[in-house]
Amino acid sequence: MAKHKKKKKKQVAVTEAKKKKKFPVKRALILLLVTALIFAAYQVMIALEFIAAVHIYWIGLAVFAMIYIAVNRGTFRPISHDDLSDELTNEEKNAIINEQARRFEKSRPILYIIIAILFTLLFDTAYLFATNNLGLKF
Known about the structure:
Elements: H1 16-19, H2 25-47, H3 53-71, H4 90-132
Helix pairs in contact: 2-4, 3-4
């Protein structure tokens, strides 16, 4: 019978920068505010019995997602020097990396709207499930 060796887990070195990374309070407050505004608008539409409210939010979510992808040119993570072609000079690589960082900053408000719409639709779906399927009363 062959003996099996236990694989040792690799220990990841934790850098000082990762230890002291602060919670982004400003971004969290902005996201909370945007979510509250979008959720309030949704509840007003529901209270006024506007039938197409859900459809408008789903279509809006799709449109904002496509805009976000177009602004970022289909990239969702930062590009490093190693990701770019070796044929490019360092100046060209830096220009590409800076352009992508600028695009990420431009697209941040769009991402806030996307997340806020997702939270609104998630809450509405959970509310409908709880009241219709579980029989809970709110």
